[in-house]
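Q: My collaborator sent me two sequences in one message, no labels, and asked for predicted structures for both. Can we handle them in order? The first one she listed is below.
A: Yes, handling them in the order given. First sequence, followed by its structure tokens:
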Amino acid sequence: MSAALASMTGFARAEAANGALRARIEIKSVNGRGLDIRTRFAQGLDIFDLPVRQLLSQALSRGSLNVSLTLDRGAAGKPITVNEAALATIIAAANDLAQRLEVAPPRVDGLLALPGVLAVEEADALDEEAVGILVTEAAQNALSALQASRREEGSRIATTLSDQLDQIAVLVEAAAIHPSRNREQISARLKAQIEALNQQTDIAPERFAQEVLLLVTKADIQEEIDRLRAHIAGARKLIAQGGPVGRRLDFLAQEFNREANTLCSKSNAVELTTIGLDLKAVIDQLREQVQNIE
């Protein structure tokens, strides 16, 4: 069974919990020439940077990823104490100011909100092994969700690429059957061009031979049509194959463009040139889509 085509664009968020301990991972993925992983982990969690990178790099081949990791240790359940000395000092200063400025005395909630008045009991030291298990679980879940997101987008792109290849195929066949490619017309044009060269009495024999060879080479576009047909078949095969084929599709898109340019340069009819320009337009659209493929 062939793998699905995947986009490099995706988003995923996942978490894993054990009691009050909860690890959360978020991954944002966009286009990239290779695999670029950037991490932003909460303080004290940098020790999990390498394992997360290894997990992602084993499953993904391309994309620019931003990965964030946070850990909730359930601090809401920790005992809270009041710094009595600090509170007494603040109250005395506040009352003095209230009398001098003739304003209302401060409210209790305002006093408790001041820095240093309330203190939350220090959290216990991290159990690295327990946190590591949660981080791994959250990372695996986020990776699975990201891959699903990228495959879903890849499926939409595959449909668009197939439609564009159909358009290219129609244009290639239109060029193949264009009246200007009639053998008699090609022969007549070539004969007229060679006769025009013959009339140039000052042209050297070797230059004459080069010009004739150039005219013969440009006389028809069959080679370009054959290559375009082969590229269409190759691109369709890669799309059906799926997996990380983005680089090869990008190479094919460049080859498509090369053949379309040559077809335009060889064209000897306005209608054929128009077909070539239409080809280039669809090929540009195809290449834009290919840039999203892993």
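Q: And the one she listed second?
A: Here it is, processed independently of the first:
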Amino acid sequence: MLQINDLSFTFGPGKSVFDKISLDVKAGEFVSLIGSSGSGKSTLFKLVNGLLEPDQGKIVINDGKVKGKRLGSVGYMPQKDLLLPWRTVLDNVLLPLEVAKENKKVKLPEVREWLTRFGLADYEESFPNELSGGMRQRAAFLRTLMTGKELLLLDEPFGALDSMTKRTMHSWLLGLWGELQKTVLFITHDLEEAILLSDRIYVLKPDGIKEWKVNLARPRSPELIYQEDFIRMRKELEWLIQHENN
């Protein structure tokens, strides 16, 4: 679904962000991207979705089926939900269909079915300021799904939530994952979140990028974080990040 080969990018003389990094995301995978602040995670997202162009290297989306400009070829969800405050939940979710000039009436039954799956059926006429933080993120995630894109870039979507709400969101997403049939590249600073949700993890380091596989069977439960194997994996991942300069 996504191949990045020998990607290099600089913001200016002496300000190299990436130097020939490579990664891949297979169709249907959930892959997380972690690294210290300033390591270039959000910049990589901007390169993938076409907001920036690399100095060298290739970015291939959906086996090259995306031709020309990448802008608009993937679904993107930032940390802030960015729901339009004057639009209801339903109207916010329908926004990608309006932009694509699709027939909203034809899609409405499908959208309402997803609202039910997302636990938002009773709130479709509510405005964003009437929702909890977790509900706002669910609405924003559904709006991203409604773009119809196979590859979703999620930039710390749960980062602004309190720990209890974040745990609830993890449980919700794990329960829904099998139905989504999407490919996700996910930025997070939360190591437990990365391990719990991901099939693989890439660690951005000053000298390149390191792949780390998550050997946990699916389906998964949030209670995994208390198990010995999970704690061991978290320690391994933390060590890898702390020794990124070695």
